[in-house]
Write a structure and sequence with these properties.
The protein has one domain: 2,3-Dihydroxybiphenyl 1,2-Dioxygenase, domain 1. By secondary structure, it is of the alpha+beta class. Strand 3 and strand 4 form a beta hairpin. The protein is built from 3 helices and 8 strands; from the N terminus they run E-H-E-E-E-H-E-H-E-E-E. The structure holds carboxymethyldethia coenzyme *A (CMX) and cobalt (II) ion.
C-alpha cells in the first residue's frame, strides 16, 4: 500500500541558493542533508509535514555532483524544476512488483539506497504519463514508517 507523498524531488543548480529561496519565501528549514554517491547528488530534505502513517513529507532539493548523473542530464535538458514524485510505502519491493505487473518498467531489479538509509526504486517516466516516479520505504517502515534523522 502507498501511504503518502514522501517527497517531491527538485533539480537545482546550486543547493545553497535553493535552500535559501525556500527559507526566505516559505520558511522551510533544512531537516537533513547528505551526499548520495550512487545517485550522483548532494541533497537537502526540507520537511513539510508529518503524516498519519508515522512518516513525513518533504521537498528533496538535488544538486548534481557528477556530469554523468541523472540530475545533471535533466538540468542540461530542462533547467531547474520538478524532477520526480516519490510515494512512501512500507513495502517497496511489493509496490514495485505491483507496478511491474501493471505494465510499468522499474529502473532497478532490486531496491537501492536512498535518503535516511531508505530503500528506493524508480518507475520509468515514459510509463507513468511523463512523471519519473520513485517508491520509498523508510528504514524502519515495518514499525510505522517513521523517519530517522
Ligand atoms: N521526468 C520526466 N521525464 C523524464 C525525466 C524526468 N525526471 N528524465 C528523463 N525524462 C524523459 C526525457 O525527457 C526523455 O524523453 P524524450 O525521449 O521524449 O525526449 C526520456 O525520458 C529519456 O530521457 P534521457 O534524458 O535520455 O534520460 P535517460 O533515459 O538517460 O534517463 C532516467 C532517464 C529516468 C532513466 C534516469 O534519469 C534515471 O535513471 N533516474 C533514476 C535515478 C534518479 O533520478 N536519481 C536522482 C534522484 C535521487 C533521489 O531521489 O534520491
Ligand atoms: Co527522491
Amino acid at each position: 500500500m502507498i501511504t503518502r507523498i514522501d517527497h517531491v524531488g527538485i533539480a537545482c543548480r546550486n543547493l545553497e541558493e535553493s535552500i535559501e529561496f525556500y527559507r526566505v519565501t516559505f520558511g522551510f528549514e533544512v531537516y537533513h542533508t547528505e551526499v548520495n554517491e550512487q545517485q550522483g547528488v548532494r541533497e537537502a530534505m526540507l520537511r513539510i509535514n508529518g503524516t498519519d502513517d508515522g512518516g513525513s513529507s518533504y521537498l528533496q532539493l538535488l544538486e548534481p555532483i557528477r556530469e554523468d548523473s541523472p540530475i545533471a542530464k535533466f538540468l542540461e535538458k530542462n533547467g531547474e524544476g520538478v524532477h520526480h514524485v516519490a510515494f512512501g510505502t512500507a513495502d517497496v519491493v511489493g509496490e514495485t512488483q505491483a507496478a511491474v505487473d501493471a505494465g510499468v518498467r522499474a529502473l532497478y531489479p532490486e531496491p537501492r539506497h536512498g535518503t535516511f538509509g531508505s530503500s528506493i526504486n524508480f518507475l520509468h517516466p515514459k510509463d507513468c504519463h511523463g512523471i519519473l516516479t520513485e517508491l520509498v520505504q523508510a528504514p524502519d517502515a515495518g514499525s510505522h514508517g517513521a523517519d530517522r534523522h
